[in-house]
Amino acid sequence: MKAMMQKKANQAHLTSQLKVSCDTCSLSELCLPRGLSKEDLNKLDHLIERPRSHDANTLIYQPGDKFTGFYAVRSGGVKTYLTKKTGEQQILGFHLPGEVFGLDGLENSKQRCYAAAMENTSYCILPHEELDSLCAVIPELRSQVYHIMGHEMNCDHAHLLLLGQQTAHERLATFLLSISSRFKKRGFSATSFVLPMSRHDIAGYLGIAVETVSRLFKSFQEQGIIKINRKQVDILDLDKLNEMVANCEEPK
Amino acid sequence: MKAMMQKKANQAHLTSQLKVSCDTCSLSELCLPRGLSKEDLNKLDHLIERPRSHDANTLIYQPGDKFTGFYAVRSGGVKTYLTKKTGEQQILGFHLPGEVFGLDGLENSKQRCYAAAMENTSYCILPHEELDSLCAVIPELRSQVYHIMGHEMNCDHAHLLLLGQQTAHERLATFLLSISSRFKKRGFSATSFVLPMSRHDIAGYLGIAVETVSRLFKSFQEQGIIKINRKQVDILDLDKLNEMVANCEEPK
DNA sequence: CGCTTGATTGATTTGAGTCAATCCCAGTGG
DNA sequence: CCACTGGGATTGACTCAAATCAATCAAGCG
Would you say domain B166-245 falls under CATH 3.20.20.30? Predict the structure, then answer.
């Protein structure tokens, strides 16, 4: 199994031939370049290693690896996670195109968690040293880096609230809404989409058992809230979902 | 109740008369100044608003407040938290002297969570704009800012693992070890200390009920692992505690 | 010295986990 | 082209860890 994963990871990919600049990247408004002038964007563009590619279920990095820089998903999907000795994975986050991951390495220049591609995935790397130097001279880039880090932290905090205070069905509803709104932001349907992750990963993210995920999906379907077939999800009653998670006090 | 909290918060404090520079602050090796030259330290020192003070159980900021900058605890203790509509608090973190909080405001210049003093607390504020400008010219300061942010994220990730995968007794053991090692780092005893937070807050941090916290403390005591009386904790068997949490795969 | 608030203890309930079969599809190879 | 197969997903039966409900108990305070 491990050998197979390694073999896959080492394959050359067609996508690695692609040359795409931030300038023309459809994700730039969601990604690090957001808010930069054309000139500054150009500087950023030159230091990016891209695109790299990983097959489904292959590791991108793991704890102890040297921290290379920020990773930005271009296509596919990535999960970051920690594990218990017993093997259970706590998924820390799912990362969709335009989203950044790898910030866990900032503390001491070593990655602290695992990152794995959930499907065939391509991504850019922004080497940290070069990015840092550029930050010194482009205030807008610093702002954007702060913004992204702050966003990551707030996502983690929402996740903590979910794991610490929400029931299993609230968790699943929150999860569906999060995926839905993120697909929407990327120009896809908010109510009909294909989940990029397995039931196992959903369970790992929500801190519940796979069987519970299965049962809850079924229950949601029976209530007419969603229609689900394998990874194909159709949200039939978005209001009901929102109602279910309307428990986290919103800032006024 | 609210009125009382407000009144307390508005009182002038003796500590606010104190003038302490980073230079002579015993916490500087744990705090933002770490790794800065004397000259750079001086620049940093000039932009710090300090010291501010809050009485026990008073709010320092809340969701929607304007993001002012990084907060560094000087004495006392602070909790940051989110709440459900129903009132339950999910504690995001406990912040001891020398620790930084308030980074949740980085995403969009508004605070996203609550911060409250758990006891009479003094702290410094590092205004964000000034700190950012200084970051442009002091690479070491940028490094330290990255380090602190990375550390925050990794703390949150460990917290996610705790909430998602650990049993109630593993959670409490993890919590005790975390507090112990942080006190130790500050030059206090690792095995005998006074908890700065209530049972309610511990429960809120660990995602379990207060009653469970109480029962577990009792159970730990009966097993000879700790001795506990109200907030006074004596750890009798540190190895046993470590054994209980030896479940998170360590980076090799 | 009563009062309020936090902590403890006990009795009972329950949401979600665990264990154990299937089921079902995607991919493989004949 | 279709049978085979292995891993993910589903379903059901049963268990249990922790929540909830309900009294005390203890301590700090006005």
Answer: no
